[in-house]
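ugh ok fine here u go
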Amino acid sequence: MLDCSIASGEFTPSGFQIFRKDQNCHGGGVAIAVNKNIEATEIPMQLPETEALLVELKIVNSKLLILVFYRPPSSNDPHLIPDLLELVTGIANSRKTRLIVCGDLNMPSINWAEYTVPTGDVPQALLDSVADLNLTKHIHEATYVKGNILDGVFSNVHCIKSIIVHKPLLSDHYIIDIETHLNVKDDERTERKI
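structure:
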């Protein structure tokens, strides 16, 4: 859980800036750590009760929006995640930029291989939203020690090169390592006369 009792320096590597939204009374808190060499700005969202954070990265000649969120397992609101996805997809489309969405879905009943759920409005609303917004799902293996896919990674365009899921260190959730196709350095050569 991430709350005001935990200083950013306790979990942020040196050379990184941290964006965070601490937990409310029911959640886990979210954070995004960005290398200080990358220009990053938090984008305010009009969903105050949602543990979600949206950050825009300026990378060479393009931009990338990254959304992280936490959905409490006790949440029965079928509109929570679909509304959030619709909001950030709209922001990404209006800015004509790439979007990566990462979050703790806490929906173990979803069969991601077949895009089905046995029962329930909440998981079905998420599946419908992912399809309606044309988001690509990138996690295909368990992200939780009990063998479920509880965490999701989605994108609106092909910008993810690879995802590696590592065994957990201090949590019951696995570590998700995402590599993108985006260059963070300007590879343009400067012409020089010798």
